[in-house]
Design a protein that fits this description.
Elements (H helix, E strand, L loop, with lengths): L1 E8 L8 E8 L5 E11 L1 H7 L16 E8 L11 E4 L2 E3 L5 H4 L11 E2 L20 E5 L4 E2 L6 H4 L5 H11 L7 E5 L3 H12 L3 E6 L5 H6 L4 E4 L3 H6 L4 E6 L7 H5 L2 E9 L12 H4 L6 E4 L5 H14 L5 E5 L3 H9 L6 E5 L3 H6 L1
Parallel strand pairs: 10-11, 10-13, 11-12, 13-14, 14-15, 16-17
Antiparallel strand pairs: 1-2, 3-4, 3-8, 3-17, 4-5, 5-9, 6-7
Helix pairs in contact: 4-5, 4-10
Bound molecules: NADP nicotinamide-adenine-dinucleotide phosphate and zinc ion (2 copies).
The site of one zinc ion has 8 residues, from helix 2.
């Protein structure tokens, strides 16, 4: 038994997405089936379609910022019922037994996490995983999140990746009152980092290459804005930040940004530039400032639920542009030009037009 699904898939690397029918497993005893209502568009979707990180598995149905309504539950499911709002983020399975899984740090599973798409689910059926640019998904309840009811649902979808990827490192490194936090890159992740940084009490500065984003940065709650292409503005913030949360998706100069950290400052990489991370002047950039360069990957499931509850309490959602799935390539093109205000979210009702076309 299997479930017929309609989605949008890339059939090879760098391909345009086209409507594609495929199957998902039937709802098992511990599974929930979600009718997908909205799915966010992450820069990682584009990176994976373009094979920037590793050889992708094609056909590829991207999408890991998934929210919708539960339409079926397995007989042993305890925490979800039909009609509930539910979500799936970037992870869909893990070994569930290792030390990190036991701490609900599933993304750091010692045996390998299973991503929501572009992976083989080695703990389930060894079949490819397919993401949220589709009308329905089946997930184990352990890997399914409760979505708050008081927030705009479409604007909640990006919390499942952009939200947790920025919330998790801010919590891990205990960023808060008394800290100067720089958010590098004001895109999908960056704008969530600004909101969380402000909510946690830090003094937030946006470091951006886009002059047009200054007024938005302030509206999002940032205290300061520095145009990184303006040497005079940059000079004023040399050696000044406790943390840089780096969300940049493209090649950039790490030595330049490290110089903006004060003694013991921490540069946290969440952005994944295709060329990797290169420090030319290790001595001056790291040792002489006793600085750290660290990384962080999305977040575990317990922490993702905690983040969703935090957003519910503080009324935090993403700033979004709602699009039809047929317009996904315009969205990708704009995302490549850093022209995202500040997350595209696909209204999955638009798939129905494809189904009936
Ligand atoms: P996005 O919306 O496209 O934002 C990226 C921002 O980076 C842009 O808006 C731009 O901001 C800045 N930027 C772009 N090119 C730049 C350059 N050459 N130099 C300096 N800044 C530049 O992308 P996103 O969805 O937020 O994703 C950001 C990155 O995080 C991607 O690499 C994605 O794959 C990665 N990611 C990682 C994780 C994780 O677990 N670690 C999870 C999700 C995503 P300005 O216009 O303000 O300069
Ligand atoms: Zn993502
Ligand atoms: Zn594990």
């Amino acid at each position: 038994m299997s479930i017929q699904v309609l989605g949008y898939a890339a059939h090879q690397a760098n391909d345009t997405l086209k409507p594609w029918s495929f199957e998902r497993r039937d709802v098992g005893p511990h599974d929930v089936q979600i009718e997908i209502l909205y799915c966010g568009v992450c820069h990682s979707d584009l990176a994976q379609i373009n094979n920037e990180w590793f050889e992708g598995i094609f056909p590829m149905v991207p999408g890991h910022e998934i929210v919708g309504r539960v339409v079926d539950v397995g007989q042993h499911v305890k925490n979800f019922k039909v009609g509930d709002l539910a979500g799936v983020g970037t992870l869909i399975n893990s070994c569930r037994h290792c030390t990190n899984c036991h701490k609900s740090l599933e993304v750091y599973c010692e045996h390998g996490v299973v991503a929501t798409y572009n992976n083989l689910d080695k703990y389930q059926d060894n079949l490819p995983t397919y993401g949220g640019y589709s009308n329905t998904i089946v997930s184990n309840e352990q890997f399914t999140l409760h979505i708050p009811q008081n927030l705009n649902l479409a604007a909640t979808a990006p919390l499942l990746c952009a939200g947790i990827t920025t919330y998790s490192p801010l919590k891990h490194w205990k960023v808060g009152k008394g800290h100067k936090l720089a958010v590098l890159g004001l895109g999908g992740l960056g704008h969530m980092a600004v909101k969380f940084g402000v909510a946690l009490g830090a003094e937030v500065t946006v470091l951006s290459t886009s002059p047009s984003k200054e007024s938005d940065a302030k509206k999002l709650g940032a205290h300061n804005f520095i145009l990184t292409t303006n040497p005079e503005q940059v000079e004023k913030v040399k050696s000044s930040f406790d943390f840089i949360l780096d969300t940049v998706s493209a090649k950039h100069d790490f030595d330049f940004y490290l110089s903006l950290l004060k003694l013991d400052g921490i540069h946290i990489c969440v952005g994944i530039p295709p060329e990797g991370i290169h420090i030319k002047n290790v001595g001056l950039s790291l040792q002489l400032g006793r600085r750290s360069l660290v990384g962080s990957a999305v977040g575990g499931l317990l922490e993702t639920q905690e983040m969703l509850d935090f957003c519910s309490e503080h009324n935090i959602t993403a700033e979004i542009e709602l699009i039809n799935i047929q317009d996904i390539h315009d969205a990708f093109n704009r995302m490549e030009k850093s022209d995202v205000k500040y997350r595209f979210v696909i209204d999955m009702q638009s798939l129905k037009a494809t189904a009936t076309a």
